[in-house]
Amino acid sequence: MKFATLFGIAGIAFLSSLTAAHCGDVAELEILGFSHDGGIFAFEEYGVQDGSGFPYANRYYIDTKTDKFLEGTPVRARIDDESATVAAVRRKVREGSQIFIEDSELSENRGHMAAFNAVTELNADPNRVVVNPRPVFPPIDAPVEFRLEQFPLAAEGRCEGLGDLAGFRLLRIDAVENGRTVLLHEDKALPQSRNCPTGYRIGGVQTFFDGKDGPVYAVLVAVQGIGFEGPDYRWIAVTGKL
């Protein structure tokens, strides 16, 4: 009995060490909001790097008309000290980003989280989402559907020997026009900022209706990549007009 008990404890400890050894880095996501006219969408991702243990925070500011980053962004910060806190690096990235748009304006115009699908959720479709774009019931807007498709795509000059890499395309399906499909995004090459991506999933949809040019959206896409200790997840967004 004593031997069996000791063996059981040792086995649990061994399995726990295996789990820890294969723990990737899943970035937390915070929606910062939109500019008052809906022309800018901003979000932040943050966490602790697997392997190094260094806290990091990245802020993304996107022109919703062009689906391009504002010049001078993203704003990235990392503290190369394992004892540093995530709160400290988030303060650092916040201080370095207020020249683009102040947090106070963004927080006043957060919009609506029409959908959210965490990477830990196992029962939702990671490639499709259909939403009522704002919390009005009965709905006064047509439903909006987004679909994600991924396909093999090599990264030129990097990631050799690290497995199959992937790009993605994002489609919008119009529910009121007999399923008319609009291509919103399609990768032609893998940007350096994604490192070595192996998969994607729709993580959420944020909408904003109070802008001068009409309602806009941001589809949040979780990017799975190859990390030091396991798969990592980072965030990107595709923006446009509803």
Automatic annotation (TrEMBL):
InterPro entries: DUF2259_secreted. Keywords: Signal. Residues 1-20 form the signal peptide. It holds the Pfam family DUF2259. This is DUF2259 domain-containing protein.
